[in-house]
Amino acid sequence: MKKVKSFFAKLLLVIATVNIFLGGLSNFARVHAETAAFNMDARAVYAIDAESGQVLYQKNATKLYPIASVIKILTLGVIEQDIRNHHLKWDQKIKITPAVAKMADDWHFSNVPLVKGQEYTVRQLVDSMMLVSADGSTEALALADAGSTEAFNKKMQAFAKKAGVTDAKIYNMIGLPNGDLGKHKLKGVDKDAENLLSAKDVALISKYLVEKYPETLEITKQKFANFDVTKDQQYLMTNVNALLPQNGFAPKEGEIDGLKTGNTDRAGKCIVSTGTFSGRRVILVALHTKGEWNDQSKMQQDFYNKLVDEYQPVQAKKISDISPKIKAVKVTNGKDKKNTQIKLNKATTVWLPKNVKLGATKPTLKLNGGQQSLEAPIKKGQQAGEIVLHIPGLPDFDIPVYASQNIAKKSIFN
């Protein structure tokens, strides 16, 4: 009987220990989750400072998902690139084919009316593509530019690669399932195939677009524009971006001037917004947001409001602004030097909580390859590694550092 009692006593001890352990894990998960400054109800999110690349929030950011009409950001990139390269002109007229007119007349899709045989300028079609997500206009632009969906896809892939995106699966310029393009669908591709990109991919493309082609924002910040369907018929377009200034979900500080929304059954409601806050351009991508359109807009508004309420950009001009302890790194096999000074190549701006200084981010130096020292020879200006900032509420941020002098390699004779 004693052995039985002893067994049950031990069993109860094990159960209690497991419960404590699991409770500890639960508390850890809760505390860890609470360290994030933002919590956005979407399948995937990626928010960055456009200049520094600092990640402000991320959630499933590298997983590929359908992005619906958000792909039109990439479509616009190709069009603007080809205008810059004189392949197209803003005032160039594009004649509407029967197939494009059919797309534009389909009530299932987002559109402005396009009349078969009528001509519209590239500017008109671009405005309608970006303000009201007109699918027929998008198709007309892509076909006029490249001749086919397949040929335009190749241009989209090349543009995405320039932006640093290599894993995107691109099927068309509109964002619809392949089969919805009718005559212009891709042959040999499933009718349900949709473009697949990650939230990070979309942010990188958006960043590249607004940096390389700033005229984009002159288009996307328009709240209203008239579209001349015929000489006797005009269509007033209202930008669907509810975060634009004076709109219902405009952030209380800063100003949104882009970029694009999208929606399909598989992609759900998606949104990319960008604007300037505390003098910094921020890009926020959210894929498959939960709730209705107003919920989506409110969620983005809340993000920007919290960003400016609780965080501020702080500039580091030199390493000593970050930490006085990080000055030099060891060098192995150096001819005359056993260490090298390191420096920032340029001033870097970092978003920090308003009550936190750079030195309080527990900066740590991480050398290339995770090494403890640099191997000679070393060239002045070569990247030595990164200073990692551990920022409360935000993901860690890496600031590159560089060698400040040349160091020759020790020869076998000395």
UniProtKB/TrEMBL annotation:
<dbReference type="InterPro" id="IPR012907">
    <property type="entry name" value="Peptidase_S11_C"/>
</dbReference>
<keyword id="KW-0378">Hydrolase</keyword>
<dbReference type="InterPro" id="IPR015956">
    <property type="entry name" value="Peniciliin-bd_prot_C_sf"/>
</dbReference>
<dbReference type="Pfam" id="PF00768">
    <property type="entry name" value="Peptidase_S11"/>
</dbReference>
<keyword id="KW-0645">Protease</keyword>
<feature type="domain" description="Peptidase S11 D-Ala-D-Ala carboxypeptidase A C-terminal">
    <location>
        <begin position="311"/>
        <end position="409"/>
    </location>
</feature>
<dbReference type="InterPro" id="IPR037167">
    <property type="entry name" value="Peptidase_S11_C_sf"/>
</dbReference>
<keyword id="KW-0121">Carboxypeptidase</keyword>
<dbReference type="InterPro" id="IPR012338">
    <property type="entry name" value="Beta-lactam/transpept-like"/>
</dbReference>
<dbReference type="GO" id="GO:0006508">
    <property type="term" value="P:proteolysis"/>
</dbReference>
<comment type="function">
    <text>Removes C-terminal D-alanyl residues from sugar-peptide cell wall precursors.</text>
</comment>
<protein>
    <submittedName>
        <fullName>D-alanyl-D-alanine carboxypeptidase</fullName>
    </submittedName>
</protein>
<dbReference type="GO" id="GO:0009002">
    <property type="term" value="F:serine-type D-Ala-D-Ala carboxypeptidase activity"/>
</dbReference>
<dbReference type="InterPro" id="IPR001967">
    <property type="entry name" value="Peptidase_S11_N"/>
</dbReference>
